Amino acid sequence: MALHNGSVDRRSKVNDVTMRFLLPILLVAGVASAQPVPHQSDGMPYDDELYRELIFDDYDRMGTNRGQSWVLPYKNPRFFIRLGSATECAHNWRLSWRELHYWRAVVPIVAEQLTGTPYLERVRAGCEDRQPEYGWVIVRYVTPAEYSSETGEQWGGDQIDARALIGDTHGQVWIRWNGSHRPLSDGIRELIVHEIGHAFGLYHTGRQTATMNWDAVVGDTFPVFSGAEEAAARRAYRAGRGARYCGDPDRCGNGFAPGYVPTLDARAPVAVD
Q1: How far lies 119's CA from each of 59, 74, 186, 208, 253, in Å?
Q2: What is the CATH number of the domain that holds 67?
Q3: Alpha-carbon distance 66 to 148, whole Å?
Q4: Along the chain (273 residues), what's the average pLDDT of each consecutive run of 10 residues?
Q5: pTM
Q6: The domain containing residue 25 runs over which residues?
């Protein structure tokens, strides 16, 4: 995803002071509940076009992946944010304290929005070089050269500021690092939320006001996903990983037992911007 600054009218602006104090309160309130949490998507009608784009990659791949859903096979992934190498951690992190605080505050909110259940884990951070592991989302701040060395793929150009992995039983997010801290701008907040959406299994959409639009300009907003995006994601998580496209999954079912994970990898994991 590329960085942009700006805002739209569809969701109310939240300033830094509000984010600092409101998000931790919402996190505590969400964890305290043991039941699925009602939200802005409740009662929204099924949007087939958006569902196909977010869950089956119809926007970028035009229907070539409408075989099965690739949402995570669990609703409470543990997040680990690598602050830098051991040497760097002794002197300076690759991200600012404010950016780390934003990750910790917003992950539970995004998880609850997309899955419909409270987030019962916590966001960890450290300097160890953790490898991908079932049930974890690993976030790394990397240079394009480090990304290429790690994955064997090219970063994709100067306009790309982050990448994420879709299509596996763990999540990975790579954030471009240019050697110094940057302000926690509206664009950085939107970038983080967009990539968390990918880590939970969402693809891009062409809706201009959607957080999962590749070129979205939505700024620092709350709630972080639109009601339509939230409704599509929750339908996908109710159907489960591996569910095949059949229209509205709440009506047509998925043909698989809850928690089903495909035994045959129909496609290789895909890194998306």
Answers
A1: 29, 11, 24, 28, 25
A2: 3.40.390.10
A3: 29
A4: 39 37 43 45 83 90 67 92 87 90 95 94 92 92 91 80 84 90 85 93 91 69 80 92 85 57 51 77
A5: 0.80
A6: 16-272
